[in-house]
Amino acid sequence: MALERRPGAVVSVSRDDAHRFSKPVVASIRLLAGIGVDGDSHSGATVQHRYAKKRNPTAPNLCQVHFMAAELFDDLVLTGYTVAPGKLGENVTTIGIDLMTLPLGTRLYLGSDAVVSITGMRSPCSLINSYQKGLMKQLITTDAAGSVQRRGGIMGVVVTGGIVHPGDRIRVELPVGEQLPLGVV
């Protein structure tokens, strides 16, 4: 699948009503304020991830929307992996935004109405290796200084709902004040 190279845009959207690793690509998704992607298994005001829900089912859901950069897919091809939108479980595949460097609280304006506040980095789970053996090592690496580098996308909560389509523009609004780096959520 050829990805449209348009800066700051939505390449693809995905959702799944069951807890499966990959999410099917759909024509559009509806974001619901404080809930997440309508019809997605991870939507809800409280945590929906199966592992986290067992630990504390009343914790706030900081993982309502999962974003992944299409540029990562190009990088993975160089290491022998082929990944397409939705296959790593993301809801929104983007182009032209360096997602992993955005600070905590960054707001992404998607299309004409939707707004998502970034809460942190996704911590890829071992199911990635079930999808493609060894892929986890490509998404969590260690740089020359010994720092862990995560490339599994970012998570956010829906501030303002709306419909999101492939081709929609994404406007990035950095938070006012101190720019805090993303932690893992």
Please provide a brief summary of the model.
Helix content is 12%, strand content 30%. With 185 residues, the protein is of the alpha+beta class.
Would you write up a description of this structure?
The chain is α+β, with helices and mostly antiparallel strands and 185 residues long. The protein starts with 8 loop residues before the first strand and ends in a 12-residue tail after the last strand. The radius of gyration is 15 Å and the shape is globular. Helix content is 12%, strand content 30%. The model is unreliable at 1-6 (pLDDT under 50).
Question: What's the assembly state of these chains?
Answer: single chain
The count of strands amounts to 13
**Largest beta sheet: what is the strand line-up?**
2-1-6-5-11-8-7-13
User: What is the C-alpha radius of gyration, as a whole number of Å?
Assistant: 15 Å
Secondary-structure blueprint of this entry?
Blueprint: E1 9-14, E2 25-26, E3 29-32, E4 36-37, H1 50-55, E5 65-69, H2 70-77, E6 92-95, E7 107-110, E8 114-121, H3 127-131, H4 136-139, E9 140-142, E10 148-150, E11 154-160, E12 162-164, E13 170-173
Parallel strand pairs: 5-6
Antiparallel strand pairs: 1-2, 1-6, 3-4, 3-12, 5-11, 7-8, 7-13, 8-11, 9-10
Supply database-style keywords.
12% helix; alpha+beta; 13 strands; disordered N terminus; 3-stranded antiparallel β-sheet; 8-stranded mixed β-sheet; 185 residues; 4 helices; single chain
